[in-house]
Task: inverse folding
């Protein structure tokens, strides 16, 4: 009987932690906007980190392939730098505004 009570107690403690409560789109976007002291609504935009990393990796591979010398370090470094800047720029420019800036 004691083993059954312990098993049921352990199951009762673990079951509530396994469920995830889904959030609505409004709750997910809740912290992407805030109201400033001047009454305007400001938006949080992505900072471009993902594009920077992916662009840097792709640029390094392209730079290494295009560098025809013995030592591929120069092409890899220049390709990584160029790809990182391009990837960051692309990600930040494709970001849509999710809120409207206005006075109330």
Result:
């Amino acid at each position: 009987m004691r083993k059954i009570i312990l098993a049921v107690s352990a199951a009762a403690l673990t079951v509530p932690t396994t469920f995830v409560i889904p959030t609505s789109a409004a709750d997910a976007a809740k912290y992407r906007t805030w109201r400033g002291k001047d009454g305007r609504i400001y938006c949080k935009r992505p900072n471009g980190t993902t594009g920077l990393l992916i662009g840097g990796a792709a640029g390094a591979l392209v730079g290494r392939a295009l560098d025809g010398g013995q030592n591929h370090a120069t092409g890899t470094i220049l390709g990584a730098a160029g790809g990182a800047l391009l990837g960051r720029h692309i990600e930040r420019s494709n970001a849509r505004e999710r809120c409207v800036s206005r006075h109330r």
